[in-house]
Specification:
Strand order of the largest sheet: 6-5-4-9-8-7
CATH class of the largest domain: Alpha Beta
Number of strands: 9
Shape: globular
Order of helices and strands: HEHHEEHHEEEHHHEEEH
Distance between the termini: 21 Å
Radius of gyration: 20 Å
Largest sheet: 6 strands, antiparallel
Strand content: 15-25%
Length: 264
């Protein structure tokens, strides 16, 4: 990232607020949602409805949103999908990951789901998934987002980051509020202590009370990106003891193999 330049008020002079607001609207869509209204956008971003109206008009003109004027709703357009697929196609590790992920998924517990994710702001976003062989509620989808700090995959990403990149994440959290930054630093410290002993991060009922998971960092071909490789499942079928005794060594091996294959 280019060096930030601040004015007397402490604001970054290079930061384009209008662009940031438009992108924030696109991030309002949640898993399973097809349409949103201007009121939905306003509620989720805190922006005035008049501002939201101008932003949605612009995003429609640029083919990132499609408007249904009768219903007063908006949906994501092919323009957003094009951006998403361009990102996925450029991820050097994704194709390699599928083989290792399927090996992990096809272990003794048929309820195991495996996913590869990367960090975006204060979230971990799945870029590749391999779902369990059972028809259970825990289904990982590409594009699904998890909170970075309480999730095992998010903690694994933090562990793998360089110090300056990790500190930048904490600074983003601090701009939300002091409590969010404090939580992030605490979760990282706890995860680091566990990782140094086990070689992976654990998440037993922390992100979701009904989910157990473990995760390890994986590095991209260029070394510029760090990913989290996690596996887990519903807590009534996937127990911590099995994750650590059977799947822990396999996860470490898979993460190391992917990093080596990717030229770390």
């Amino acid at each position: 990232m280019d060096e930030m330049h601040y004015d007397e008020g402490g604001k970054d002079r290079n930061f384009v607020t209008a662009l940031a607001r438009g992108l924030e609207l696109l991030r309002c869509f949640r898993d399973g949602e097809v349409t949103l209204t201007n009121s939905d956008f306003s509620d989720r971003t805190g922006l005035p409805k008049a501002t939201v109206s101008r932003l949605t008009y612009t995003l429609c003109a640029l083919d990132y949103l499609v408007a249904d004027t009768r219903a007063g709703t908006y949906r994501l357009s092919a323009g957003v999908l094009h951006l998403g697929f361009s990102v996925l196609s450029s991820i050097d590790i994704q194709d390699l990951a599928h083989v290792e992920m399927e090996k992990l998924r096809d272990g003794p517990n048929s309820y195991i789901t495996v996913a590869l994710g990367e960090q975006h702001q204060l979230e971990a976003i799945y870029v590749a998934t391999s779902n369990s062989r059972e028809g259970v509620a825990l289904v990982a989808r590409i594009g699904s987002r998890l909170p970075l700090f309480p999730s095992a995959i998010g903690q694994a990403i933090l562990i793998g980051m360089k110090d300056d990149a990790r500190e930048a994440v904490f600074e983003v959290a601090g701009r939300v509020d002091a409590e969010t930054e404090a939580e992030g630093r605490l979760r990282y410290a706890e995860a680091k202590a566990i990782y140094e002993v086990k070689g992976y991060c654990t998440g037993y009922g922390i992100w979701r009370a009904d989910v157990n998971a473990i995760a390890a960092p994986v590095f991209s071909l260029s070394g510029a990106k760090v990913y989290g490789l996690n596996l887990g499942g519903p807590s009534f079928r996937v127990k911590p003891k099995q994750l650590e005794t059977i799947y822990g060594p396999r996860l470490i091996q898979a993460a190391q193999s992917l990093s080596i294959q990717s030229g770390k």
